[in-house]
Automatic annotation (TrEMBL):
Residues 12-214 form the GmrSD restriction endonucleases N-terminal domain. PANTHER family: DUF262 DOMAIN-CONTAINING PROTEIN (PTHR37292:SF2), VNG6097C (PTHR37292). This is GmrSD restriction endonucleases N-terminal domain-containing protein. Pfam families: GmrSD_N (PF03235).
Length: 596
């Protein structure tokens, strides 16, 4: 049984639906990302009668109002927004909002002599053969007969030829575009599944994309304002220089309390946590609705009653208010700054130290939940800090993050948070984990491994110095984009037959080291360059680094998890060294976690 119908609608009909608001494509639903040449090509295809693909829409489910009647919602464009926006820009002459949130006009020019379309530029503006902007051709009352006569006189061409071209151009409005209309009775889960399966230029659309489309389609409960709040916050985090442009082009929104409370992010220069709209949605939804699956957000915003399986206006209204509160808590300066402070207190002082955005997302959702519950600041900091690191240690949100978000937030809400944390520690961080599982996970050549990042976080937390450095800390080396070097030099290993990347690039062979120290170490065995260090300790004359005291050297070895016998190691000891260091690194990470 078909769950959709396919109709053909004229371009004129589609443009009129956009103007009337029947199609839910608010100004800010998604910035227009097409290149101007794609707009030109779309118009050219319509002119030549070529197919331009389908538009897929879904009418919101009927919602039960308080008086018992049903309210029909707008039609949400599931796929085809960029094409529709291109049509309204080229034919109706509407401005579009580009990726910098600037309102721009995309003018498509037309040469009626050779019937060629071009994107307008100043040179075209000086060419009498070009019609600068085809939107004038589609304006009510346009006199094509007189236009053809005047154009022909100016360019010395046959007016009948021009008249024919203009008539063909205007006929674009009558061209049909296929519209796939999903049954309005389809449940949210089915529509979400359809949405996710649709590919847009090779990119699979996500549940977050669908949720954002749903949010922005509801102006009655301020969904358009929620959408702009999310978009502008994320955009200004990445491009703070655009704030003046936004204030100029969206003056109405900038008068609202929402903008006043988010604009501070343009002055924030911390890149540890740079959320996109998916992150904001996930945190706001998880913290306020105590759920993890974004498909459930679409259901709640649609008014879904999970018990009766019907749709109710009150649930929709309450859900938009909840979401708004969650978004405002996310963009709140105090909340954001305090959360980043907690993240830094865990040794995460640079974005490169965290590969899992979802570990931070859940951490922020947990922070907001615990603040809502009224726990004191010290308690919140401890729980959130340890939970983030535990999540990284176990890869908790790397597999099915939505299911784990759903599972964890419900238990943090229904249990005493510290008790739930301890129960997870008992199950996930046993002695076997620290003594066997973690060392085995450190057996990798992937420098971006979360376990190596955790080791670096431990070094940062403890204020450790770089290998053979007397004063320069690992934190300073990371913050200044210092280099990771090989304790057994790479070329030394290659000369001795270990030329496979997976052998010489073991993370247990890595250490943050000052470049000048690494240069002096050269490509010799550890026992060779360490003899120079021992000589400088004896002579008190530094040549490699600044360590001239045996106590300092031993302490530096301890800070960098270097085995005591490292000064005597050569190629024969390499594999033994790796095993020893993995154990030492795992112990350091354990001590780091227990000290959080």
């Amino acid at each position: 049984m078909a769950r959709y119908i396919v109709n053909n609608y004229s371009v004129e009909n589609i443009v009129s639906w956009i103007k009337s608001g029947e199609f839910a494509i608010p100004e800010m639903q998604r910035p227009f990302v097409w290149d101007s040449t794609k707009v030109r090509d779309l118009i050219d295809s319509l002119y030549k009668g070529y197919p331009v693909g389908y538009i897929i829409i879904w009418k919101n489910p009927d919602i039960k109002l308080k008086d018992g009647t049903l309210s029909s919602g707008k039609k949400i464009v599931i796929d085809g927004q960029q094409r529709i926006t291109a049509l309204t820009a080229a034919i109706a002459g509407h401005d579009v909002v580009n990726q910098e949130y600037k309102k721009v006009r995309i003018k498509i020019s037309f040469n009626p002599i050779n019937e060629i379309f071009e994107v307008y530029n100043p040179a075209i503006g000086k060419d009498s053969k070009m019609i600068d902007d085809i939107s004038v051709i589609f304006e009510p009352g346009f006199d094509s007969f007189n236009f053809s006569i005047e154009y022909s006189k100016e360019n010395n061409v046959d007016p009948s030829k021009i008249s024919k071209s203009i008539t063909n151009l205007q006929a674009i409005k009558a061209n049909n575009i296929g519209v796939i209309e999903l049954e309005h009775s389809l449940d949210i889960e089915t529509v979400t599944d359809i949405f996710i399966r649709i590919n847009s230029k090779g990119t699979v659309l996500s549940q977050a994309d669908f949720a954002m489309s749903k949010i922005s389609s509801n102006e009655k409960y301020g969904g358009d304002i929620i959408r702009k709040t999310i978009d502008y916050f994320c955009h200004l985090k990445q491009r703070p220089m655009d704030i003046e442009t936004i204030m100029e082009n969206d003056r109405d929104f900038c008068k609202l309390d929402e903008f006043d409370k988010l604009k501070w992010i343009a002055r924030n220069h911390d890149d540890i946590y740079s959320p996109d709209y998916t992150d904001v949605l996930r945190v706001a939804f998880t913290s306020q609705f105590l759920r993890g699956k974004l498909a459930d957000l679409v259901s709640k915003l649609s008014g879904r009653n999970f018990e009766t399986r019907g749709y109710e206006e009150q649930i929709s209204e309450e859900s938009y208010e909840k979401l708004r509160n969650g978004v405002m808590k996310f963009v709140n300066k105090t909340n954001f700054d305090r959360f980043i402070m907690i993240v830094k207190s865990a040794g995460i002082i640079d974005e490169s130290l965290v590969r899992s955005d979802n570990a931070l997302n859940f951490g922020y959702a947990l922070y907001i939940l615990l603040r809502d519950k009224g726990f004191n600041a010290d308690y919140i900091e401890t729980v959130v800090r340890k939970w983030i690191v535990l999540s990284l240690l176990t890869g908790r949100y790397s597999g099915s993050p939505e299911s784990m978000f759903d599972f964890d937030i419900k238990r943090f809400d229904s249990n005493e948070p510290m008790e739930y944390l301890h129960s997870v520690e008992l199950g996930e961080l046993s002695d076997a984990y620290w003594e066997h599982i973690l060392p085995s996970r450190l057996n990798t050549s992937v420098a971006s491994s979360p376990y190596f990042k955790l080791y670096l976080m431990a070094q940062v937390k403890e204020g450790n110095h770089g290998f053979l450095s007397n004063h320069i800390t690992v934190q300073a080396l990371i913050e200044n984009r210092g280099d990771i070097h090989h304790l057994f030099p790479k070329k030394y290993l290659q000369k001795n037959g270990l030329d496979a990347r997976g052998e010489y690039n073991q993370i247990a062979n890595y250490a943050y080291t000052q470049s000048e120290i690494n240069i002096k170490i050269k490509d010799v065995a550890p026992h060779v360059y360490m003899k120079c260090i021992l000589d400088q300790i004896k002579n008190k004359v530094p040549t490699i680094g600044g360590i001239v005291d045996m106590v300092n050297l031993k302490d530096n070895f301890k800070q960098n998890c270097i085995p005591d016998d490292f000064c005597n190691y050569s190629i024969e000891n390499y594999r033994k060294f790796l095993e020893e260091r993995r154990v030492l690194m795992a112990r350091k990470i354990k001590d780091f976690y227990n000290g959080l």
